[in-house]
Amino acid sequence: MTAALHAEWTKLRTVAGPLWLLLGAIAATVALSAATASVVTCGSAGCGGDTARLSLIGVQLGQAPVAVLAVLVIGGEYGTGMIRTTLTATPRRVTALTAKAVTLTGVVVAAGTVAVLGSLLAGRLILPARGFTDAHGHPALSLADGPTLRAAAGSILYLALIALLSLGVATILRDSATGIGVVLGLLYLFPVLAQVIGDPHWQRLVQRAGPGAGLAVQATTGVRGLPIGPWAGLGVTAGWAAAALVAAALFLHNRDA
Amino acid sequence: MSAAGIVVAGLRKRYGAVLALDGMSFSVRPGVVTGFVGPNGAGKSTTMRVILGLDAVDEGTALINGKPYRGLRRPLNHVGSLLDAAALHPGRTGRAHLLWLARSQGLAARRVDHVIELVGLASVARRRAGGYSLGMRQRLGIAAALLGDPSVVMLDEPFNGMDPDGIVWMRGFLRSLAAQGRAVLVSSHLMSEMQDTAGHLVVAGRGRAIADAAVADLIAAASGDRVAVRTPAVPHARSVLTYAGATVASTRENDGITVSGLPADRIVTLLGRSGVPFSEVSAHRATLEDAYLELTREAVEFRAVTPTEVSR
């Protein structure tokens, strides 16, 4: 296992793509968060709103490059045929997949931490100027605040789970383009679907069931009114990731390479 | 039976309606280059993938040094293989490609530089593999196969895309690997390469081994006891030799015949005694290509189809 991990890490660091995608994920996350914080306003009468969630909104964009990276980690090998070399070097296929999953989780958690902290910092710097001040009931964002810490740590975990879901989907489909299409579809179509559904019961169900439900972990206020609770939402995303990985392991183990 | 090398026994595999392997059996012994030849669809690549544990079979076993591939710990230290030289990330350097493979087996980076030297890629090792010619990729693939200093080496079509210099190098290299006591299995459709390189030949056809013999024996069998005779008096020679009990066949040249059933010295005596002029009497020696074509004539899967078959 150590050797397989070492091999996967060497693969990741010896091509330019993964680094650029991780930097892209950080840039996209922080940029969207900062831009959103710059356009909201809180009048003198005070305002509602969830400043932590607002500051972390960029995760919704940053998850796309993370998903692409995760799909390419194995989809790229299916594209060139290098997967056969990988499985010749590591014939225990579940070990090979696990090594990919662990390495991927490591780099996504590292990049996700930078992205999340950058977003919170941007929010902390920009929001007071937009009227989100202590006087209006919005103390400066701080990780010392329990719900904010949950939102931050949860967002990092969410990105890691999206990466694992994408790795699983790409392993099942054995193709990068299809894999990216399916994963982005799952991430962005569920919210759209929820919007167009008229029936409130079904709407809530769709909001709870999609892999993006984990973004509920970013909520720090009004948690009771959400379609799904913070940890429960992250649990749904974890369920998607686990299902995809288990199916991927079964397919990988039983199919001809 | 020695367990060293590769032993393939009774492999059977069906892909839907196609029977890809139908009782494929042969062994690859240490110290000799074994050529693995056969027409397209004969099952060569499938067999190699099965040996490497990439494809599962419905029946049969493939063992390397007595063990199934998936049971080998750090397998590249036992078997080095090259299936597809193009299976590389184009953005990774040749050296980095070998480095991740070395890491996967717990091997030091020192081995990487050693095999790079061995295959003559030192000058381009730090360039992206996407810019390599097919010949350079083949060399990189050979380097990868030798990373773990394995006792068994298996290469699928390593001559593909090589320039003449590369082909000469590859022949010598394969022979030297065998001379070091390794078991070497090389698939190729270039019979002439096998004649100069392989000591043993496995001919595949329709999913099984239709011949498994030393190259010298195969050539001797295909040569038969035929003698080529060159003479300006073909009809006269024909009647003299037929009278003596030989079977005479014409050749493409109109001053040549092929004689079977009589040894060359007897033919010389008979022709001389009868006053038939001749310029050459020589034992007919088949090429490996002849032997191969004779063996696979029955087994060729993709023959040209007739128009009626197409329109059906």
Please tell me about this protein's structure.
The complex is a heterodimer of chains A (257) and B (312). Chain A is mainly alpha-helical and 257 residues long. Chain A has one domain. Chain A has helices at residues 2-13, 16-39, 51-55, 59-80, 82-89, 93-126, 146-173, 176-196, 200-209, 230-254. In chain A, helix 4 (59-80) packs antiparallel against helix 8 (176-196) and helix 7 packs parallel to helix 10 (230-254). The radius of gyration of chain A is 19 Å and the shape is globular. Chain B has 2 domains: 6-212, Rossmann fold; 225-285, Alpha-Beta Plaits, CATH 3.30.70. Chain B is built from 11 helices and 13 strands. Chain B has a 6-stranded mixed β-sheet with strand order 5-6-7-3-8-9, with helices on both faces. In chain B, strand 8 (200-205) and strand 9 (208-214) form a beta hairpin. Chain A binds chain B through residues 2-4, 6-11, 14-17, 76-77, 80-82, 84-92, 256-257, and chain B through 49, 52-56, 69-70, 72, 74-76, 81, 83-84, 86-93, 96-97, 99-101, 103-106, 144. Chain B: Residues 6-231 form the ABC transporter domain. Chain B: GO terms for molecular function: ATP binding; ATP hydrolysis activity.
